[in-house]
Amino acid sequence: MTTKLRIGLLRLTDGAPVITAHEFGFFAEESIETELVVEPSWANIADKLAYGFIDAAVMLPPLALAAELGLRGKRQPLIIPYIVSANGNTITLTTSLVEEVKGLAARQNISTVAALAACLRARQTTLGVVHTYSTHNLLLRYFLATAGAEAERDVRLAVIPPASAVEALISGQIAGFCAGAPWAEVARRAKVGAAIATSCDIWKSAPEKAFAVSAHWANEHDAALAGAIRAMLRAAKFCDDPKNASYVAALLSRRRYLDVDAHVILANLPGGSAGGAKCGFFSGAVTFPWRSQGMWFLKETRRWGLMDKDSDARELVTRVYRPDLYRAALAPLGEPVPIGDWKREGAHDQEWSLEAAPAAIAMPPDSFCDGAIFDPSEVWGGTEAAKMGALHK
Amino acid sequence: MLRRSRDYETVGAMPLKILLVDKDTNRAEALSGKLTASGFAEVQRVPGGDGITKALETAKPDLIIVDMALPDRDVLEDIRAMSAAHPVVMFAGGDDPSFAEEAIAAGVCSYNLSGVALEDLKPIMASAVALFQRYRRVEVELAATKALLEERRLIERAKAILMRGRKMTEPEAYRFLQKKAMNENRKLREIAAEFVRHHEEQQA
What we know:
The structure holds two protein chains of two kinds. Chain A is of the alpha/beta class. Chain A has two domains: 3-86 and 207-303, 3-Layer(aba) Sandwich (D-Maltodextrin-Binding Protein, domain 2); 89-202, D-Maltodextrin-Binding Protein, domain 2 (3-Layer(aba) Sandwich), CATH 3.40.190.10. Chain A contains 19 helices and 14 strands. Chain A has helices at residues 16-23, 26-29, 42-50, 61-69, 95-108, 112-122, 135-145, 162-171, 183-189, 199-202, 215-220, 222-240, 245-252, 262-266, 291-303, 313-320, 323-330, 377-380, 382-387, and strands at 3-9, 32-38, 56-59, 78-83, 89-94, 126-129, 156-159, 176-180, 193-198, 210-214, 337-338, 352-354, 356-357, 361-363. Chain A has a five-stranded mixed sheet with strand order 2-1-3-10-4, with helices on both faces. A five-stranded mixed sheet of chain A has the order 7-6-8-5-9, sandwiched between helices. Chain A is globular and about 65 Å long. Mean pLDDT of chain A is 93; it is low at 382-387. In chain B, helix 1 packs antiparallel against helix 5, helix 5 (118-165) crosses helix 6 (170-183) and helix 5 (118-165) crosses helix 7. Chain B is elongated, with a radius of gyration of 26 Å. Chain B contains seven helices and five strands; from the N terminus they run βαβαβαβαβααα. Chain B starts with 15 loop residues before the first strand and ends with a helix. Chain B has helices at 25-38, 51-59, 73-76, 97-106, 118-165, 170-183, 188-203; strands at 16-21, 41-46, 63-67, 88-89, 108-112. The model of chain B is unreliable at 1-11 (pLDDT under 50). The A-B interface holds A 40-44, 47-48, 50-53, 70, 72-74, 130-132, 158-161, 163-164, 167-168, 171, 173 and B 49-50, 53, 68-78, 89, 91-92, 94, 97, 100-101, 104-105, 109.
């Protein structure tokens, strides 16, 4: 018997594994009949999840947490049993501002971010982010804060749909924006903007989109959910191989998906030309739903007053992030899966080896731009941390 | 849960200020005409894009009605800074989920900015939903008509190829295609399309 699964997504490169799994019939082979619903806004994704028009979505993790708490519209219990992508975000500025920032950094021998902060402070500037509850908003704020610049005080942040960002750069409504692929590349090719930093310059191997599923659907269809995780992992391996990039780009460029030139999409796929802004889909345990990463998003969302501190952080993250379901789905394949659910984020500036079963996983660096190490137990206090068992060091 | 504002009692007398965000100018015109005629609404229209922020500042609306096909909903959800009240997605009231579902299916959504009671907004949203449904129906019918025309075109073309290539009469050609479709348990349209494609490949 086949199970129907309706998945919402936006016109973004990081939806590649889900689109590929759908088009290649990987979901079908797991007896799942998928319908992909491409939406123009994150608000549509959240509302359609809340009212049962879709069962799952390729979603911003902070938005999934906000939807779970009912912070924007009807509350919808969601779970995250799988991460779709890592990296892929770019901070793009107008070409003249990029020159100014780089010039200042060179003259005064200061970091790019320090020069950027100085330029933003010097005049009233607006930068665009894709949503209030987005990884982009949190990463950009984190980056600027390392140089002492704060949103509202030193720079205005406005929400700009990425597809409108190029136009907004031209009209002068914004001086730059932080968005996912392919939109920075679109701006670069239109010669209106250039990259000043990528998500890798802020947090190496930063988790990006999550596979968020309605908790109700997940409870009713546990076997289908496990099948969907296996189908996406299979597609993720395909998408992560640079050899397949041109194929994936052609698939994504179709009118019903991104409707953007395949060459533009290619830049941000593995092996592409976009440097630190390339999406990651598989290697380095990208797909594992680390509870510590959920906790980092929660901590940063609270830091900027976008979420109040009433809710029990650990309880929320444990309820939403479901590494147990990930393991159960992949165990039959003999796929190496991490042993712990939490790790210290940002602890590695070199490649490292992650404890996993049946075999260790080779991991890329995961450091933050300011060298900070995020120990999730800090959020709920030291004594509580002991109960969580060993953290990956 | 209904949200009642201080000036709830005056709402009946005072027109509500509505910002209508819709890129379909015909539909926007029809809806704003309908709402203005009812006398309880003062409507300003904006097609979406970077005009929205300015329109919000100048119009200071009580209610925003927005086309869900636009990417601008994410912009509208970030308006806390501009408005004293926290914007409430229409559906967040939660007392009538089927109404919210109907609105989503029609492709329209609203934001309540001034905390006006939900029951006062409902007739306004009902008008919007009805109008969006009507436009959607026209779109669906148009797409169906286009598909039908394309099917006819393909079948005509396939018949012509058969009549020329295999010296069949028109009814013979049609029966040939129909029989093939029945034998293979496929749609006549698919058979015709495949036939035409094969023929064109051979010609090339």
